[in-house]
């Protein structure tokens, strides 16, 4: 990598610096720099000032400006004053990996059903070198619940899935793991987890206390193995470990020279990983007993396809509900059943896919788009960066493995251009190559997916509502339907002397509002009870209101004039999810003196529909592999 680009943290490997020192001659430098900016934004939870990006990447400010301008043109970031903010459309990169992987489409429903049945959080994870990445989270809504997100990277040794993936490691993978542990003793390269506790050093005066603790340790026999329980003093909890850790009790470890007295060091989290891996290989399951943080316990089993681990499913709980042993004893039989069902699903899908013709991607029209972007932005637009990121989107469902020709055809790029982009992405770890066939790696999920995977519909809509309000100089709102009421979840008001003042969270009856009517019109049996006359113009006859809803359904919008409040005029359009179901609505509201009903239809409605179209585009990308919260 060029010397003015700092290595990105969170790779989960300690060999990053060495790899970056040997940048292939044909690598695309602007693509390397652009990905570095995306990673810094991801590590910053999706928002960073431009000057902050300059400092964290080591790039010149002019380069940061050009990169963020290009990413904004692509729709991957939004420039908000002096800040760069990750935008939902960036998730199309992670979606390409998840679609090619197939597992979320095939197994998410099984994980969700298991979570509902057990009333515990359930996750699916894949291995990413010496770490694990989540590809699905089915969490329980509790005061104390999981904060992990799709795409989060965790160190393998501090998880339940880690030992299972490590059963398939060879010497090279173990060497990488040991190198990373030595280079990153605090797990700072894994922002999703608390830093690993530092080893505690102490001298002879404290030895009696340690002997007392060692004497209190208890030995159990499980699965024919002796397991010791050591006290982890750094976090104050019981930590189950195997024989290898028991062999390292402080009373038996060699002394380390200290100043005036001998110092001894306690084992740290993950020291017993090789022993846990051996036990997982024999048992076929693994436990995490508070390795990530106190109170968090998990039970994991591998899901295999064609003899290899495709992913690992985990049931995650808290010690207030289950101890690790109780989690295993209580839930392991049910987890085995769920894994068997998942493996059947994969076998059936594999059989069906073998008989299905290979899909080909439609050319993306990249050349036309980049040409227009270059003309609009001039030298601020970095064409090679846009082209390189588009290569990732060439992969997808039915296109998990592509050769160079197929990538070039899917993107519309010249073979030489596609080849250089693939070389760069392989160097950075986002694709692998074998026998001239390329595949995406889980690392693609590290490009913005974790912070964006928790984005709500209100957050997706917010910048679009602001832009619409600024263009029309009227109040704009987003609302959802709750029973027979609407609830405002997004709002941008104007600064007029006379304007519509409603706060987020406000609830109003649905029937006399434009927002409510576009959502009621999508229901097979809309609730039309207690139709009270709020103004002389309010429609209160159920038959007449049903006729109005039929017209709204046909025309795709609602215009309400003075039915909620005299002088208030509003026009609304529904927001639909990928399947076409209405999940929310957006309106423009004003005093009736501002525009006539005809002017609302002629001037406001086209702008409103265009805005909702952009919201839906972002929603469809964000909701492809997860449920987007409505509020």
Automatic annotation (TrEMBL):
It holds the Pfam family HTH_IclR. Residues 28-95, 382-442 form the HTH iclR-type domain. GO terms for biological process: 3,4-dihydroxybenzoate metabolic process; negative regulation of DNA-templated transcription; positive regulation of DNA-templated transcription. One of its GO terms (molecular function) is DNA binding. PROSITE patterns: HTH_ICLR, ICLR_ED. The keyword Secreted does not apply. InterPro entries: GAF-like_dom_sf (IPR029016), HTH_MetabolicPath_Reg (IPR050707), PcaR_PcaU (IPR012794), Tscrpt_reg_IclR_C (IPR014757), Tscrpt_reg_IclR_N (IPR005471), WH-like_DNA-bd_sf (IPR036388), WH_DNA-bd_sf (IPR036390). Signal peptide: none annotated. Residues 183-223, 247-269 are annotated as: Disordered. Residues 89-348, 443-621 form the IclR-ED domain. This is Transcriptional regulator, IclR family. The lineage of its organism: Bacteria, Bacillati, Actinomycetota, Actinomycetes, Kitasatosporales. Keywords: DNA-binding, Transcription, Transcription regulation. Transmembrane segments: none annotated. Residues 249-258 have a biased composition (Basic and acidic residues).
């Amino acid at each position: 990598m060029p010397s003015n680009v700092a290595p990105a943290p969170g790779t989960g490997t300690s060999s990053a610096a060495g790899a970056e020192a040997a940048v292939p001659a044909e690598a695309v430098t602007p693509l390397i720099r652009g990905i570095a900016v995306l990673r810094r934004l991801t590590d910053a939870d999706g928002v960073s000032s431009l000057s902050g990006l300059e400092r964290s990447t080591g790039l010149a400010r002019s380069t940061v400006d050009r990169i963020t301008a290009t990413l904004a043109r692509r729709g991957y970031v939004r420039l908000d004053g002096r800040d760069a903010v990750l935008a939902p459309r960036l998730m199309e990169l992670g979606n390409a990996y998840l679609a090619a992987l197939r597992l979320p489409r095939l197994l998410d429903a099984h994980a969700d059903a298991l979570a509902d049945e057990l009333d515990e959080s359930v996750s699916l994870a894949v291995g990413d070198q010496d770490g694990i990445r989540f590809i699905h989270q089915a969490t329980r809504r509790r005061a104390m619940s999981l904060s992990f997100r799709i795409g989060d990277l965790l160190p393998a040794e501090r998880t339940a899935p880690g030992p299972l993936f490590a059963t398939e490691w060879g010497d090279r993978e173990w060497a990488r793991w040991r190198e990373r542990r030595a280079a990153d003793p605090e797990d700072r390269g894994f922002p999703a987890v608390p830093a690993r506790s530092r080893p505690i050093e102490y001298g002879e005066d404290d030895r009696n206390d340690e002997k007392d603790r060692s004497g209190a340790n208890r030995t159990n026999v499980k699965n024919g193995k002796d397991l010791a329980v050591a006290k982890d003093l750094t976090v104050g909890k019981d930590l189950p470990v195997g024989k290898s850790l028991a062999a390292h009790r402080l009373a038996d470890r060699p002394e380390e020279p200290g100043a005036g007295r001998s110092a001894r060091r306690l084992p740290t989290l993950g020291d017993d990983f090789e022993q846990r891996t051996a036990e997982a290989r024999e048992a076929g399951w693994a436990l995490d007993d508070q390795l990530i943080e106190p109170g968090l316990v998990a039970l994991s089993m591998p899901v295999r396809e064609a003899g290899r681990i495709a992913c690992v499913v985990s049931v995650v709980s808290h010690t207030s509900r289950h101890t690790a042993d109780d989690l295993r004893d209580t839930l392991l039989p049910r987890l085995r059943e769920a894994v068997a069902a998942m493996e059947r699903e994969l076998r059936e899908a594999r059989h069906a896919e073998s008989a299905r013709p290979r899909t080909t991607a439609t050319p993306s029209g990249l050349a036309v788009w980049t040409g227009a972007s270059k003309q609009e932005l001039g030298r601020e637009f970095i064409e090679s960066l846009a082209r390189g990121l588009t290569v990732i989107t060439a992969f997808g469902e039915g296109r998990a493995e592509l050769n160079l020709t197929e990538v070039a055809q899917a993107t519309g790029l010249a073979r030489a251009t596609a080849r250089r982009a693939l070389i760069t992405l392989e160097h950075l770890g986002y694709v692998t190559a074998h026998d001239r066939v390329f595949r995406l790696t889980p690392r693609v999920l590290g490009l913005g997916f974790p912070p964006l995977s928790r984005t709500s519909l209100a957050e997706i809509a917010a910048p679009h509502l602001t832009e619409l309000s600024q263009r029309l100089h009227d109040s704009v709102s987003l609302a959802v339907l709750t029973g027979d009421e609407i609830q405002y979840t997004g709002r941008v008001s104007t600064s007029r002397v006379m304007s519509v003042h409603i706060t987020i969270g406000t609830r109003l009856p649905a029937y006399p509002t434009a927002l409510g009517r576009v959502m009621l019109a999508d229901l097979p049996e809309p609730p039309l009870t207690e139709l009270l006359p709020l103004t002389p113009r309010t429609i209160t006859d159920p038959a007449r209101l049903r006729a109005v809803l039929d017209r709204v359904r046909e025309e795709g919008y609602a215009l309400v004039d003075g039915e909620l409040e005299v002088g208030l005029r509003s026009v609304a359009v529904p927001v639909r999810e990928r399947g076409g179901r209405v999940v929310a609505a957006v309106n423009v509201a004003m005093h009736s003196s501002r525009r006539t009903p005809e002017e609302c239809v002629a001037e406001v409605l086209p702008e409103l529909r265009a805005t909702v179209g952009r919201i839906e585009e972002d929603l469809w990308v964000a909701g492809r592999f997860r449920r987007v919260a409505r509020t």
